[in-house]
Amino acid sequence: VNDTIDRLAEYFSRFPGIGPRQARRFVYYLLGRDPSELEGLVRTVRELKESVRSCARCLRFFPKDAAASTLCLICRDDGRDASALMVVSRDVDLETVERSRSFHGYYFVLGGSLPILEKNPESRIRVRELDKAIAAQSAQGLSEIILALNVNAEGENTEEYLKERLAPLSTHNIRISVLGRGLSTGTELEYADSATIKNAVKNRA
Ligand SMILES: [Zn+2]
Fold it and tell me: How far is the CA of 188 from the centre of ligand 1 (A)?
């Protein structure tokens, strides 16, 4: 495709949840902006990968800082509750839970979820890294892993897979729990409000 409008629209249409029509609306929106604003956008996109790194422990993205730490601010905070580990699909889910101030343990970001009948789960979610994070936190008194996944088919499939995979941990006195009711079917964690999250964490089972 040579037309710049088509080309840019093609990029936007790859974004999560964005269809071809919305993608074109973004392009026309940009065409109506000042050149200086577009410069800022382009510069920020260019800086994105260089200024952000993935936490060595929970794997969430966080801004690089002067300390050049390999751990994000949450994983660096030893005031958090090391007895609990919450497993979420994506960075946005972690941010939603964190904003609700209902959880004070540590997190792990799977990086996605498992489609039904996925033959190679390890290619979709970071299960080996999860094993490592669990091992690290076990040494600090881990006693509960909370699976906080979306209430939809993929989320439930991921939950079932992880429950089975993590079941042997019960012999080490680590219990596996899931978020409680209050999150209705079809709920994507990132769109749930703080009160709902709070309830779901409190009523986990
Ligand atoms: Zn971290």
Answer: 22
Q: What is the Rg, in whole angstroms, of the alpha carbon atoms belonging to the chain? A: 20
Q: Which residues contact 61 (CB under 8 A, 6 or more apart)?
A: 52, 53, 54, 55, 91
CA–centroid distance, residue 114 to ligand 1 (Å)? 22
Confidence class for position 183, pLDDT limits 50, 70, 90: low
Given a cut of 70, whether residue 40 has pLDDT beyond it is yes
CA within 13 Å, CB half, 118: 18
